[in-house]
Amino acid sequence: MSKVPPSSRSSNSSPKSPLQRLRKRLTDNISHISTGNHSHDEPKFQSLDDFDSSWDSEPPLTPLTLKGYKKSTKRQLLSHELAEDLRQHIPSVLQINHSWTLRYSIEQDGTSLNTLYERCKPQVGENMRKRKGYFIVVMDNHGSVFGAYVNDYLRPQDGKYYYGNGDCFLWKSEHYKIKRLVSNKDGDLIKDDDDNQLVMEDNIRLKVYPYTSINDFIIYSNHDFISIGSGGGKFGLWIDSSFLHGASDPVDTFGNEQLSEDEKFTILGLEIWKVG
Questions:
Q1: Do 84 and 53 reside in the same domain of the chain?
Q2: Best label site of 92, 110, 164, 267, fewest CB within 10 Å?
Q3: For 106-144, where are the E strands, in sequence order?
Q4: Domain count across the chain
């Protein structure tokens, strides 16, 4: 029997490659759905782009659980709202972790730098290859909350040795008030000039300062202090060994604003949170 010339082969023959076959099945399914041959439970796609876009949407993250606070702990620096905001700025692979663990707290563990280092050490049996992150959370004498995210656990260094990578950043939370109109009994908005019917709502704004690559002075820690970001004799965040005093200045490492209201501040609270 003679062979059929290539030009006379049916145009309806199946694509040869797996990708072509998959695309044809998707196109056939879309054609079937868009012509009305579907049940009420089936999604309606108008084009292949619409069908593909349904695969691109990511499921929502599981709400965070903050573990480690004792019932007796009065000053809890990290709220769920702030934690969820900070979560959006860490590497995606760590965002899926929905449980953060408090590794150190001044109120619960005392003011000891050695204790902080000891509690930040990897625990026995912990997978050292697993990616992790740590949040430093500070409250100063003005009640401001700020800190840093670091990709490695804090530890004393022998000699002036910096560590950390480009995942690290500085951050601060700012309180601000917005004026909101309230409705009267009829559901109508009160006029703007009626101050008695205006409500001032307290809100929190998060500012994040990522690594700039200008220098590599990311993390330095010894038995005298902890610093995150530095240059020109100044530090993005500096905490002394007594956990009484701290300082913050703009530095090239993160291109940050001053985190605290005052350049030098008194520490009222300090926490270290482990992610991953």
A1: no
A2: 92
A3: 133-140
A4: 2
Residues 51 and 135 occupy one common structural domain: no
CA dihedral (237, 225, 88, 255) in degrees, to 10, reads 30
Domain that holds residue 163: 65-275
Quick one: which H or E segment has residue 107? helix 106-109
- Report whether 106 contacts 270 (CB < 8 A): yes
Specify the residue for token string 């009420």: 40
Q: Compute the residue count for the chain.
A: 276
CA distance 103 to 138: 14
Q: CA-to-CA distance for 210 and 87, rounded, in angstroms?
A: 14
Structure tokens at 102: 């408090």
Q: What is the pLDDT of residues 104-162, one digit of tens each?
A: 999 999 999 999 999 999 988 777 778 899 999 999 999 999 999 999 999 999 788 99
Residues 45, 102, single domain; the answer is no
Lowest-confidence segment of 36-50, 57-71, 124-138 by average pLDDT: 36-50
